[in-house]
């Protein structure tokens, strides 16, 4: 028999799809060069727990784990949160410096069983319902408080232009963000006093910490859903003080939250904020959750735009300025490279849901399980007299 002076490079079967087998098996094959019989050992298949790295995120996520089956089951079984009226506080006031209280899963359960948690989540649901079937540009009630908050947010946006990013080698975490955040910390109290009535001036001790922690962490130079939740908690505190009323809720989403999202997008892009505790490709988004809830509510009963419509670039181009959900999708596609189904599989999965009503209720349940029930996020949440630790 003729001897071989080359290494075999057998005809190999195509790379196996994510498998059920757990061990490689040997199969017959033939040498590509000489046609003689040889053997082929397929590569070790990818386990179901760790799928193949088909996509490398443009941002380096802090956590990149596949969905947890327990979390998925919890979301499916959880009841849809209901809206609740915000209980107002009345004098005499006893405002407190809010502190962190959550350290363990037991603390999470204690919080979620409390009236404070039910009322806070009920406030989120009420905001979602207030924007149902409304475009961003639709007319809404604008109170002096809403105007003041929008003006404050525009000031924070203007500071970014006044504090340009430093030229530095590292890709993430521009140090100029700390300068921006220092200015925020120095002026937060005066910003609050600009719209608080005289009898509520003492509330700054409690509401300033929520506000100051709504725009990211200055030492880590990151931002995530925990900071976004603090912003929602700050708005909830203003509602408890009676400064934000139910007739303001549509404007809270369409004016205040839209402006907040504009600020956070600019901070993320200019100062390259890291995602705080991101789930990478397995999460909804690297930074935000609430705009998906509010945005899906906006699209309920829309005559033409369906969940699958996010794959239509014309729809994104023409309607993302009116619908938060579409704006979020457009932003994800802007900052992440590669196939949408690979870098955002969860958002892609949502497109098979038939109605926005189901998308909205599913996201509300998911927010409770994936944000409010997670110790790494909620360990930074604050408790005082307006959001009590019970």
From TrEMBL:
Disordered: region residues: 1-67
Enzyme Commission code(s) on record: 5.2.1.8
Catalytic activity reported: [protein]-peptidylproline (omega=180) = [protein]-peptidylproline (omega=0)
Domain of life of the native organism: Eukaryota
Compartments, record wording: Cytoplasm
Main localization, broad class: cytoplasm
Low complexity bias: start-end ranges: 20-29
PANTHER family assigned: SERINE/THREONINE-PROTEIN PHOSPHATASE 2A REGULATORY SUBUNIT B, SERINE_THREONINE-PROTEIN PHOSPHATASE 2A ACTIVATOR
Functional note: PPIases accelerate the folding of proteins. It catalyzes the cis-trans isomerization of proline imidic peptide bonds in oligopeptides.
Name by which UniProt lists this protein: Serine/threonine-protein phosphatase 2A activator
